[in-house]
Design goal:
Chain B: Keywords: Signal, Sugar transport, Transport. The complex is a heterodimer of chains A (319) and B (429). By secondary structure, chain A is mainly alpha-helical. Chain A is built from 14 helices and two strands. Chain A has a two-stranded antiparallel sheet. Chain B is α+β, with helices and mostly antiparallel strands and 429 residues long. Chain B has two domains: 177 residues, D-Maltodextrin-Binding Protein, domain 2 (3-Layer(aba) Sandwich); 194 residues, 3-Layer(aba) Sandwich (D-Maltodextrin-Binding Protein, domain 2). Classes of the chains: A mainly alpha (319), B alpha+beta (429).
Chain lengths: 319, 429
């Protein structure tokens, strides 16, 4: 979308001021060139984005094994999901816990570190890069494998605990702890929201703080009355983004649990269950229906987020 | 911007577009067939490790030498994503001419009309009839086995003796003997070496149930009773209680590891249950001499319950345009000693008696041992059962409920009922 807008804007800007038909002819030619350049992107949009999305909508109303023709079954898949599939419900529960716990924790952590870094430390770029690193790596397969080793029953974490005489549990292999460990992994990838917070903090004019301190406001008061309100749009942005992202989490659970969502379904994320349904049980129609339910859930949550934002997000320019 | 430049950009844009379109059409047309040089092109899909890929490339080369008019192209992926990519290709009408599948996928594919009948097209007179029989469904030979494995107990006898215990007599031992011995080994080694690593592999339950006169898959139903399931889980619970195995969490962790990272592979357990073709990997990883034993028996059982399972099957697509060439390639893979000499036991020990005879002297020591073991147990074997459609999901269901029981999150009664309901639903359709 951004591409289209940019090209159109450029086409307008470069149009000459003089001449009637010559201009339109020229404009038309320019537009043609623009569309030609955009063509690969359009092909991509229709062939590999919109096409499959519509196809999956159709498939969600069918019984489709991948190996045979799809059979129309109406709303059966959707009905089954909510009435006779306990694993669907439990995957929804696991994912909800994951999102509700890990997103606020992650954002709080990111904000706290951004505040510390904003104090104008020496070597800030270095710290920034170091803290950002987990965000780049966190969703990767390699880190998930490493995580499995570090948090294994005889992994690094338990070795360190052992020094203090504590017998640690199997952090990823015990169903009581496995989800917690994945939440920790998610919180650890706080770098991306942190960078955005840092940018947001830089936007707050320092004159506000100066005025506040003249009025005798302490650090905490300044944070509550200046930093936090002015940062709410950024917090909101991060919140929306992270909720969407974490609802779609897949890799961590897939790798750490060896693709099973185990032990005992304790890390069965929604997307992992969707994948297992489609590719392991050959129930592609059901998987497609699950994808649409996920889309509705995320759209709904984002909508609620936007509605709620009226009450707590403060935009400096609109009163 | 001058108009000359613009013309240029439009032209480049057009060129790019047509290049993109060309690329797309070329990619779409790739499935159908023959090379430019008039050779018949065969596509052959299989899964495995790098070493298997190398061997397969060699065997393909050999085949092409003997059949200069055929060009075989291997399509290779690792096991975990194999069925995903294969079923996607089949769904897209782009099925490879020759497909490797395993027993759990056989009914899934054959039952859906994807595979061709190979009867009379591939010579099978020298193949082990029992193993070959598993590739026939409803009177049609959909699949030809590449080789066979047995699910057996792999033992590190040195570790058993080091713990002050005697190696068992596997012809007579019972489950109680096995569980008791495992506990004593852990105790005797001072906790450094566990008695055994347990597994939820359905082959274990299949054998365990057969000894009690029950079939794991009985047609389109699960044939094990809740009592058998509870007794089976009882084995695990006893191992955990007596420390014959690590606790549930640690066991879940090692269970996820590859054979070389298993307890047996790292020399930290005396026993483990594995498919016999893994003996080589396990021996190499542990650096110890490992032995194959029969699985223990239930008291008073009349059958060992053990069976030879085809390691893989070669099948051809029902839609292939080159059925004769595809059959010829499979024939070469299973019947030609030259192919056998390259593949050896990579796809299970050959089930072709003539090929086996020809390559026997070339087999590594672990395979020779496996061969001796198989010959020893051959009279006691029962027929392997081809699982119904949906069986690939049952393995996961079994593992999940086993974990629920062993982590104490569900009672065995409850789990047995739920397992049966869910597994039956998975294979009913």
């Amino acid at each position: 979308m951004a591409d289209t807008v940019a090209v159109e804007r450029r086409a307008k800007a470069s149009g000459p001021v003089t001449g009637g038909s010559r201009t339109t002819e020229r404009k038309r030619r320019e537009a043609r060139a623009a569309y030609l350049f955009l063509a690969p992107w359009f092909v991509g949009l229709f062939v590999i984005t919109i096409g499959p999305i519509l196809a999956s909508l159709y498939l969600s109303f069918t019984d489709y094994s991948l190996l045979e023709e799809a059979k129309w079954v109406g709303f059966d898949n959707y009905v089954k999901m909510f009435t006779e599939d306990p694993r669907f419900v439990s995957s929804l529960k696991v994912t909800t816990i994951y999102v509700v716990v890990s997103v606020p924790l992650q954002l709080a952590f990111a904000l706290a570190l951004a505040l510390v870094l904003d104090r104008g430390l020496r070597g800030l770029p270095i710290y920034r890069s170091i803290f950002y690193l987990p965000s780049l790596l966190g969703g990767s397969v390699a880190i998930a494998i490493l995580w499995r080793k570090v948090f294994g029953a005889e992994g690094l974490v338990n070795a360190v605990l052992g020094v203090f005489g504590i017998q640690g549990p199997g952090w990823v292999s015990d169903p009581d702890y496995a989800l917690g460990t994945l939440i920790l992994l998610h919180v650890w990838t706080f770098g991306a929201p942190m960078i955005i917070f840092l940018a947001g903090l830089r936007q707050i004019p320092s004159s506000y703080y100066e005025a506040a301190s003249v009025d005798g406001a302490g650090r905490l008061r300044q944070f509550r009355s200046i930093t936090l309100p002015l940062l709410t749009p950024i917090i909101f942005f991060n919140l929306v983004l992270e909720v969407i992202k974490s609802f779609q989490s897949f890799t961590q659970s897939f790798i750490v649990s060896n693709g099973s969502g185990g032990p005992a379904d304790s890390t069965l994320f929604y997307t992992l269950y969707l994948y297992l349904k489609g590719f392991k049980n050959y129930d592609m129609g059901y998987a497609a229906a699950m994808a649409w339910v996920l889309l509705l859930i995320i759209a709904g949550l984002t909508g609620v987020n936007f509605l709620a934002s009226k009450y707590w997000v403060f935009y400096g320019d609109s009163k | 911007m001058s108009s000359g430049k613009k013309m240029w950009s439009a032209r480049v844009g057009g060129a790019l577009l047509s290049a993109a379109l060309l690329a797309t059409t070329a990619a779409c047309g790739g499935g159908s067939g023959d090379s430019a040089d008039g050779k018949v092109k065969l596509r052959f899909s299989y899964w495995g490790s790098d070493s298997r890929q190398k061997l397969t490339e060699q065997v393909i080369k050999k085949f092409e030498e003997k059949n200069p008019t055929i060009d075989v192209e291997g399509e290779f992926s690792d096991w975990s994503s194999y069925y995903e990519s294969l079923s996607t290709k089949v769904a897209g009408g782009d099925a490879p001419d020759v497909m490797t599948i395993e027993i759990k996928g056989l009914r899934e594919y054959a039952g859906r009309g994807i595979l061709a009948d190979l009867a009379g097209k591939v010579a099978t007179s020298d193949l082990d009839a029992k193993v070959l029989g598993t590739g026939a469904l409803d009177g049609k030979q959909y699949a030809v086995p590449s080789g066979a494995n047995a699910f057996a107990l792999v033992a590190n006898t040195a570790a058993v003796e080091k713990a002050g215990q005697k190696a068992p007599d596997d012809a007579t031992w019972t489950w109680d003997d096995y569980l008791g011995l495992a506990a004593k080994i852990t105790e005797g080694s001072g906790g450094k070496v566990y008695g055994t690593q347990y597994t939820f592999n359905s082959a274990y339950l299949t054998i365990f149930a057969a000894q009690r006169g029950e079939k794991f898959f009985d047609g389109n139903k699960i044939g094990v009773t809740p009592e058998t399931l509870k007794a089976w889980w009882g084995n695990f619970q006893k191992l955990i209680q007596t420390k014959g195995s690590p606790d549930a969490a640690k066991s879940a962790e090692v269970d996820a590891n590859s054979p070389d990272q298993s307890l047996l592979g790292t020399g930290t357990a005396a026993f483990g249950m594995w498919w016999s073709n893994q003996l080589g990997t396990l021996s190499k990883a542990s650096g110890q001499e490992l032995t194959l034993y029969r699985l223990p028996k239930a008291k008073g059982a009349t059958t060992s319950g053990m069976f030879l399972q085809p390691a893989m099957y070669y099948t051809t697509s029902a839609k292939t345009e080159h059925a004769a060439e595809a059959a010829k390639f499979i024939d070469f893979l299973v019947n030609d000693p030259d192919a056998g000499a390259i593949l050896l036991s990579d796809r299970g020990l050959p089930v072709n008696s003539k090929v086996l005879e020809a390559v026997k002297s070339k087999l590594p020591p672990a395979d020779v041992k496996t061969l001796e073991f198989m010959d020893k147990i051959r009279p006691e074997l029962v027929d392997a059962v081809v699982p119904p459609k949906g069986a690939s999901g049952v393995e996961d269901i079994l593992k999940r409920y086993s974990e629920e029981v062993l982590f104490g999150r569900m009672t065995p009664d409850d789990a047995a009922q739920k397992f049966l309901t869910e597994a039956n639903a998975a294979i009913a359709g």
